[in-house]
Amino acid sequence: MHLWDPPFCGDLDMVIQRDGTWVHEGKPIRRQAMVALFASVLKKEADDFYLVTPVEKVRIQVEDCPFLVTEMDVSKSNSQQQLTFHTNVGELVVANANHPLRVTEHGENQEPHPVLLVRNGLEGLISRAVFYRLVELAESARVGGQDRVGVYSAGEFFPLESV
């Protein structure tokens, strides 16, 4: 799908809200199967988001991140921690070098804005409950000559604070 490059056909009245709700023409899409189908053809180009088929491409709006990370599993393999995240559209993503976790600051109050790269430039906003679980797992590590607080997953260290 990431190689499809059909002609742009215009804007669609669809918004992915910050809380992960998909809204079409002002009404939430309630069928999870439909949301998952739309999510499977979602593509990001520069700062715009598109639903893409082999023959057309339509732009949609995204308030924050297109996905919401709703759950997290913690496992150990050979004494190495692995964090597996669940998105609101049913995708499972292991935080690793290809799917990094990062925290920036967001909004007027400079609140933590934790996100996970899900696929092809598309990120998932980590829910507050999942972020609290990450904070519970946090440990200190020396990164780039600085002491940082973060978590390990699949052999990678991910700071939980913005720089």
Structure annotation, total helices: 2
Largest sheet: 6 strands, mixed
What's the number of domains?
A: 2
* CATH class annotation of the largest domain: Mainly Beta
Mean pLDDT: 93
CATH superfamily of the largest domain: duf1285 protein
- Class from helix and strand fractions: mainly beta
Radius of gyration: 17 Å
Question: What is the strand tally?
Answer: 15
Order of helices and strands: EEEHEEEEEEEEEHEEE
Spatial ordering of strands, largest sheet: 3-2-1-6-5-4
Q: What would CATH call the architecture of the largest domain?
A: Roll
What amount of the residues lies in strands? Answer: over 45%
Q: How widely separated are the two ends?
A: 34 Å
Helix fraction by DSSP (H/I, runs of at least 4): 10-25%
- Unreliable residue runs: none
| CATH fold label of the largest domain | duf1285 protein fold
Describe the protein's architecture and organization.
By secondary structure, this protein is mainly β. It folds into two domains: 8-62, duf1285 like fold (Roll), CATH 3.10.540.10; 67-159, duf1285 protein (duf1285 protein fold), CATH 2.30.270.10. Helix content is 12%, strand content 54%. It has two helices and 15 strands. It has helices spanning 32-40, 128-137; strands spanning 8-16, 22-24, 27-28, 42-45, 48-52, 57-62, 67-77, 80-87, 92-94, 101-106, 111-119, 122-126, 139-143, 146-153, 156-159. Strands 3-2-1-6-5-4 form a six-stranded mixed β-sheet. A six-stranded mixed β-sheet has the order 9-8-7-12-11-10. Strands 13-14-15 form a three-stranded antiparallel β-sheet, with helices on one face. Strand 4 (42-45) and strand 5 (48-52) form a beta hairpin. The longest helix has 10 residues, at 128-137.
